[in-house]
Please model this.
Amino acid sequence: MTLRSRDFWFVMALALLVLGIGLGLRDPWPADEPRFVLVAKQMVESGDLLIPHRGHEIYPDKPPLFMWLLTAAHSATGEWRIAFLLPSLLASLGTIALTFDLSLKLWGRRAARLAALMLLFAFQFTYQAKRAQIDPFLVFATTAATHAFMSHALLAPSRVTHAAGWFMAAIGTIAKGVGALALLMLPVIAVARRIAGRSPLPPKNSARRSYMLVGAGSAPRSFDWAWGPLAFVAAASLWLGPLILTTWLRDDAELSAYVREILLGQTARRYANPDHHFQPWWYFGEVMLTTWLPFVLAWPWALAYAWRRLRDRHDARVFIPLVWALVVLLFFSASPGKRDMYILPILPMVCVGLAPGLVFASRRTGFRRLVLGFVWALSLPLLIGGLMAVFGEPKFEAKQEAARELSGHVDALWWMLAGVGATGVAAAGWWRTRHALRACFTLMAALWIGLSTVAYPLLDAHSSGRAVMQRARDAVAADTTLGLVGWREQHLLQAIGPVAEFGFKRPAAEQFADAVRWLRAAPEQRALFADAATVPDCADRARAIDLGKGNRRDWLLLRADAVAACGH
Model:
């Protein structure tokens, strides 16, 4: 039914345009993108897909599944500049398709279209979909699992569907440990059935499927339940099986430490006792209200509508996805360490649960006026700010370019912003209040298309490591080996010619000491590429070559004469 829907193909075509445009126009950007791509690149070069490495050190922070996807994308394209964004793009398209499909089956065509479009244009979702992060794939795996669980409970009970939910939850788990949170939907469904058993409300129409809690699917047989954990173990074993076997066979202390860190340190310890990203308990409320725009604009109407369906009809289609989302939200809120993307996996199910409320909201004049106000509030600053940068006081343009370390005149950026603003103004003026959502989606599409095709390429020189590594290579002979000190992942990833490194997590002083000894062993064939902040006072900076800024840091090239006084 979904594949025959014209609305589905419209939404997917629009999603492909918005999310896919700009592919290949930029390099991986810090902080996370170069790290994952570097690990994947080293997997390709070494042939070791099991134990991820960052330089010569084992990388223990994340399971390797996402890096496997990157290697697969590279095998298909042969070009890292394209391959590194493909997994996120395909995963995000899959998430939108699943959201549309479930909303269509539960609520109908109009609700499915609105749910999918609100998901697509939520700032956080679109931003993450256009980055090489684990989170877009995690969102897809979580959505696939919860889609399966809800389909099993509310649409057509099936041991295959039920097992598929467990399988995808495990895939999410070996991508990022919190993927197992999809399994929390199972107790929510159990609670729904418990309430159903006590509810005095009968189905209103016995001739049709009832989605009231009294009709929230039939409880599966115990035999059916057994397939779920087996599917979870099978999926998790795709990674854990070879890892545990290899650890046992090698009897390597470093490898054993890696296993302990990846299985415990990066999950339970990081949740209970994080090292950074400390935020107050209400932090995710702020995240939702800001980064889930324009979706949250509908919440006053959509939530009220959802509450009425729960109160009056005990609708499981609302209860299950929203209560599950609330449980996951409370789980992350309880941890002192919080990042905005942690709650992204609940967004698709929130869209599904509120889908009929979106239809209700779209018919309210107050909501339409609010959306139109949002369009004006975003469009006018973009239009005025862009025109001011091009035609106004030169100091304004210079200030903006300096703040973002942009070199030269970048009028194309300011014209793009003005063009996006003009598009929003024109859309608001053309469609007005009656079709405010069309104006909103037009503005959001124009914004992301403009950012992807104009802004990202212009910002690439500042945000990637390619430019500073090119300057370093131009300052030495082609066969000179560069020793990296205080380096970041983008520098090793985008290095040109032969390089050496002295550890990533090691203290900079230790890196520099080893690098100086390495340099003196062959001073004619070697040079140091170093973060200026890591270079000690013993170095003669007058003899160093200033490579300029890269990623808000100053970089130096040092020959043996510049470090002659160091290490004695």
